[in-house]
Amino acid sequence: MRRASPYSYAALERLLREHFPFPRRLLQLHALLLTSGALLPDPERSAAATAITAFPYNCLAHAHLRLSAAPSSSSPPSAPLRLFSAMLTAGARPNCHSFPTLLKSASASGSASAAAALHAQCLRWGLAADRFIACSLVSAYGRTGHPSRDARKVFDEMEGSPDLAACNALLDALCLAGDLEAAGTFFERMAARDAVSWTTLVSGLSRGGRHRCALEVFRGFLLDSSMGRRLEEATLVSVLSACANLGGAEGLAAGMAVHAYMVCHEVELTAFLGTALVDMYGKHGRLGCCRSAFDAAHDKKVCTWNALLSALANHGMETEALVKFEMMRAEGFLPNQITFLAMLTACARAGLVEVGLYWFEAMVAEYRVTPLMVHYGCVVDLLGRAGRSVEAVQVIERMPFAPDASVWGALLTACKLHGNVLLALEIGQKLMALEPQQSGRYVTIRNVYLEDGNWQAGMRMGEVMQEAGIKKTVGQSSVVLHGTSSP
Question: Keywords, A to Z (predicted)?
Fold first, then answer.
């Protein structure tokens, strides 16, 4: 016989309601619920009592979801899904409050299979018609990598006319799936739009590389008669991202106009808004404005430092980048993958080989940061620029994954710089196998032959390009006049 819980279910439910705003207290109550046996199935409990046992699981799942979103949290995003499994095992019946939290958990963990399984559970328990659950399903399908047709199917099957929240969820799903044409068409057909709708489309277009279109949509947002209130942080961050990635004077002018709006309306420069502004000025090479935006940002985060370090490293201020890196560490910020990428880039361009190698080793041994392909590419570039091609090849051989074209390309450039013809030709063959239609690789190999005096081989490489139908990319110049680019 199971020992009866010393606490009445009503008392435990009251505690959960009182402490719901405090997720860490709810975890303490979770321990109490487990040790008291209140979460175990009770054959003596009435059917009515059994029907309400979803409540503690819903509260605990929501607490875990909030904790997993907090910085330096030890609660994994999948914790609510494990609670749902325990809930079903205990015989509790999920309700309309259960699935939105679970679907957000699936989205946070990026689990496409979990989203599909939860959809099946919604159908099983007859809850798929609930408007809030259907909206959560659309969002989960978009954020877990499902094709856009899956989110569209759930949206089309919603009962009644979809509300604005559901339309925004589908718009976001279409943008995340990269179906930007469908997203634009759906946006035009929306009966009502709010700031979330406009921001979602601007962000989606910018993320898809259509930065000029993103700015056009943003201008439409400003001209929309129903948008009388101040712009939200998310909107400003999205449009600054588009400005940062739109090359030339057009992107810089638009970014400065957004900055002027922020100053005129006294918009607080939060960490994320400050990061977006630093990144925008940094990518356009305006380091003075970049430093000023960094100094003005409140409550700086690692991403804010990363934006400044990347700007300095990419625009010839390598020594200042290393100094700022030490300041960042002194203020207690932990470097991440983007931080080390900026540092390795700075070391490679400044020729600080030993410093770069030291931080590459410390990245793994001291900070437990896993190197990505781009980090290995920077180390190869670092060694290659210094003429240490043998060590660069050894780094490539020790990589835990097959090198891509960017890594081989970095070594090829170094070989060409130092006249290592044999290695350059060997790498060139690898690159042409990896990217057979990339004209730049053929041109580089042809130039290596010509610089080495092998005119016949150089001419032959040109013939190979012609036979394969590969044309050299023609260099172009453009002038931006009144926002219009002209060749």
Answer: Repeat, Transit peptide
